[in-house]
Design a protein that fits this description.
The protein folds into three domains: about 10-230 and about 345-400, 3-Layer(bba) Sandwich (FAD/NAD(P)-binding domain), CATH 3.50.50.60; about 235-340, Flavocytochrome C3, Chain A, domain 1; about 420-490, Methane Monooxygenase Hydroxylase, Chain G, domain 1, CATH 1.20.58. It is about 35% helix and about 20% strand. The chain has helices at about 20-30, 65-75, 85-105, 135-150, 215-220, 250-255, 280-295, 310-315, 320-325, 385-400, 425-440, 445-465, 470-490, and strands spanning about 10-15, 35-40, 55, 110, 115, 115, 125-130, 155, 160-165, 170-180, 185-195, 225-230, 235-240, 260, 300-305, 335-345, 350, 360-365, 370, 445, 500, 515-520, 525-530. β4 (about 110) and β5 form a beta hairpin. α3 (about 85-105) packs across α10, α11 (about 425-440) runs antiparallel to α12 and α12 (about 445-465) packs antiparallel against α13. The longest helix is centred in the C-terminal third of the chain and has 22 residues, at about 470-490.
Length: about 525
């Protein structure tokens, strides 16, 4: 057991959890209004945003329109989008992107014009990139540089946020643990913004870093926040497949430039599923690949870029080209084996148009949040835009609604700890959860496997012991509970919609035109979608 030290108390105007684009951008904006503590479970550069190859979808071309971007988003969302928030996304998104450009972000340009990419589900070219297929890396590096020189921002790396300080439906701060120095910190704040990313890192095959295990979602859930749309996990259709399990993402933009997806007979099988073929929305492409793999009895299909200009591939997608070379594959000359992998958490902490949760002073933005803009299936490259638009709104709303510091009557002597005797249990549970999530809550689900998965979760609780206020135990309970939220929603939604597919219910059903919402100590609630009309 690690040595236990005294609990340390800190006080900031804003506490922001997560160092992806949403967290970094919120920190940058919030520093103009007060002191900021930016907490990250690992390093400031280790996030899904950093590895994001896709770009930012924004209406910048004269032939494009917010109406078109709106409709593409709605179409991809399969009837579940919150139209009001989609309108906010596509209209305010342009302004946020232009502000970044004015700040100094360098997006790719040729002959004085932005290089706009085409990706699945988009009706035209509107996706900005930086550094080819390294947009996330460039944006994160840019904001990290700004933050490191801002005296109003303190960054706390390797700080594990495990509980909110809250009472009477109001958040007053956050409890954290310094994983390096084994110290407990209580951060007292006027506003807490959770931007800690999604939970797709729980799946055995994922594009996410291993730290993306939904910590922020579980922390908010325990405090009474509403959690919505957990059944919708988006799989990225094109990730590298290897027998060893090694994988890396192949950006949607590669298909936007004309790459094909082939089966083992060399056929472009996607043509029979959607007239957009390789440029169909992600749910369509992932499902088609999954079904083709089952039909052929294979564990992968192929991405074909051999017909595309070799120099374009080597420069525009240098990181993908070089990653493939590490496995002895020159994608300008050979096929690349691919298979879908868990990629994006559409559901999360339920928020309104201002990123506010049902708990006062608690906000959420980015992948951790569920504001309805993605509906049942996210449109490619809307995620980074969401970070900007609703991160901006989170900060502006928190400033406007700040109620000042509230007296602290919580137990300042509470101690969090790491007990090594629980490490083995955690490793075993993590492995079991990875298998359960990928096999039972993967691309296609059915009642039999979902119920079997719930039984396995109950068995985990019965067979393993958990410590109170202990790191490995808290992580284990988070994995089990979040998996349970996914399964319960997936069982309740007896239809196929977007990236939630039920084998027994292959069609969309109007009865399920709404959202399932979880709240601790409450039954699963269904909220019927109101008719909306925007743009």
């Amino acid at each position: 057991m690690a040595s236990i030290k005294n609990t340390l108390k800190m006080k900031y105007d804003f506490v922001i959890v997560g160092s992806g684009l949403a967290g970094l951008y919120c920190s940058y904006l919030a520093s103009k209004y007060g002191s900021v503590a930016l907490l990250t479970k690992s390093s400031i550069k280790h996030s899904s945003s950093y590895w994001a190859q896709g770009g930012i979808a924004a209406v910048l071309h004269k032939n494009d329109s917010t109406k078109s971007h709106f409709q593409d988003t709605i179409d991809a969302g399969r009837g579940l989008c919150n139209e009001e928030n989609v309108e906010i996304l596509v209209t305010e998104g342009r302004e946020r992107v232009l502000e970044l450009i004015e700040l100094g972000v360098k997006f790719d340009v040729i002959h004085g014009e932005f290089v706009l990419g085409l990706e699945g589900g988009h009706s035209g070219r509107r996706v900005l990139h930086a550094g080819g297929a390294e947009t996330g890396k460039h944006l994160v590096a840019f904001l990290v540089n700004h933050i490191s020189h801002d005296p109003n921002i303190n960054v706390f790396e390797n700080f594990y946020a495990y509980d909110l300080i809250s009472s009477e439906d109001s958040c007053r701060g956050i409890k954290t643990f310094d994983l390096v120095n084994n110290e407990t910190y209580f951060f007292h704040a006027q506003s807490v913004i959770i931007s800690s990313g999604g939970l797709s890192g729980m799946f055995s095959r994922s594009t996410n870093p291993s730290v993306s295990t939904g910590d922020g979602i579980y922390m908010a859930y325990k405090a009474g926040a509403q959690i919505m749309d957990t059944e919708f996990i988006q799989f990225h259709p094109t990730t590298f497949y290897s027998e060893t399990g090694d994988t890396f993402l192949i950006s949607e933009a590669v298909r936007g430039e004309g790459a094909y997806i082939l089966n083992h007979s060399g056929e472009r099988f996607l043509l029979q599923f959607d007239n957009k073929s390789e440029l169909a929305p992600r749910d369509v492409v992932s499902t088609a690949i999954h079904n083709e793999m089952l039909r052929e009895g294979k564990n992968h299909v192929y991405l074909d870029t051999r017909h595309l200009p070799g120099e374009m591939i080597k420069t525009r997608f240098a990181n993908i080209y070089n990653s493939a070379l590490e496995y002895g594959i020159d994608i300008t000359k050979a096929l690349l084996p691919i298979a879908p992998a868990a990629h994006y958490t559409i559901g999360g902490i339920k928020t309104d148009s201002y990123s506010m949760t049902n708990i006062k002073n608690l906000y959420a933005c980015g992948e951790v949040a569920a504001n309805g803009i993605h509906g049942a299936n996210r449109l490619a490259s809307n995620s980074l835009l969401e970070c900007l638009v609703f991160g901006y709104r989170a900060v502006e709303s928190s400033v406007k609604n700040a109620s000042g510091f509230v007296g602290s009557d919580y137990d300042i002597n509470e101690i969090f700890k790491i007990d090594e005797s629980f490490r083995k249990n955690f490793i075993e549970i993590k492995k079991i959860i990875a298998e359960i999530t990928f096999t039972s809550t993967g691309i296609i689900r059915d009642k039999k496997h979902l119920n079997a998965a719930m039984e396995k979760l109950d068995k985990l609780y019965a067979e393993y012991s958990f410590g109170r206020d202990e790191y490995f135990s808290n992580q284990s309970e988070s994995l089990i509970n979040l998996t349970g939220l996914i399964i319960k929603s997936a069982l309740a939604r007896e239809e196929s919609r977007g990236c939630h597919l039920r084998a027994e219910f292959p069609e969309q059903r109007n009865y399920f035109l709404g959202n399932f919402v979880h709240q601790v100590n409450s039954k699963l609630k269904f909220i019927e979608k109101k008719n909306q009309s925007c743009l």
